[in-house]
Amino acid sequence: MRRLLIATAVYAASFLTAHAAETAAPLAKVTVVFDQALPNAPGKSMKGVLVEYGPGGSSPAHIHAPSAFIYATVLEGAIRSQVNDGPAKVFHKGENFFEKPGDRHAVSANASDTEPAKLLAVFVVDTADKELTTPIVK
């Protein structure tokens, strides 16, 4: 009887762990689609980053390269965003927002649990900055 209880407990724990992994929000797919040094601004580059969220998808809280100024436009769906300690806002297709150097991006997520969302983030950044995004460790 004891073996049956232990086996049942192990099975239940593995099932719950697998189920939790399946139901966790999927991470965003991030692709650099443009990277060009700015000829009239030595040491600076412009980088275009396509961020694609599946339904319910999100990115962990993060900061960007210290030199990064970012202008983001929602291409599809709706994006929930919170920068620094400001309120979280939802931006829809065609709307945009920006982030200044040093800003913390606390929330970046698809506002829908049923539809995909995409945004294009354009960075003006020091060419030497290779890491564009760093997760915030709590």
SSE blueprint:
Elements: H1 2-23, E1 29-37, E2 44-53, E3 58-59, E4 62-64, E5 69-76, E6 78-83, E7 89-92, E8 96-99, E9 104-110, E10 117-126, E11 133-135
Antiparallel strand pairs: 1-2, 2-10, 3-9, 4-9, 4-11, 5-8, 5-10, 6-7, 6-9
Structure summarized in a few sentences:
The chain is an alpha+beta fold. It is built from one helix and eleven strands. Strands 3, 4, 6, 7, 9 and 11 form a six-stranded antiparallel β-sheet that branches. It has a five-stranded antiparallel β-sheet with strand order 1-2-10-5-8, with no helix packed on it.
Walkthrough of the structure:
The strands form two sheets. Strands 3, 4, 6, 7, 9 and 11 form a six-stranded antiparallel sheet that branches. Strands 1-2-10-5-8 form a five-stranded antiparallel sheet, with no helix packed on it. Helices cover about 15% and strands about 50% of the residues. It contains one helix and eleven strands; from the N terminus they run αβββββββββββ. The longest helix is centred in the N-terminal third of the chain and has 22 residues. Strand 6 and strand 7 form a beta hairpin. With about 140 residues, the protein is of the alpha+beta class.
| Portion of residues within helices | 10-25%
C-alpha geometry: globular
Query: How far apart lie the N and C ends?
Result: 44 Å
Number of helices: 1
- Helix/strand/pairing category: alpha+beta
Main sheet specs = 6 strands, antiparallel
One letter per element, helices H and strands E, the order comes to HEEEEEEEEEEE
How many strands in all? Answer: 11
Average pLDDT metric? 85
Strand content: over 45%
Radius of gyration: 20 Å
Low-confidence stretches: 4-22
Identify the quaternary structure here: single chain
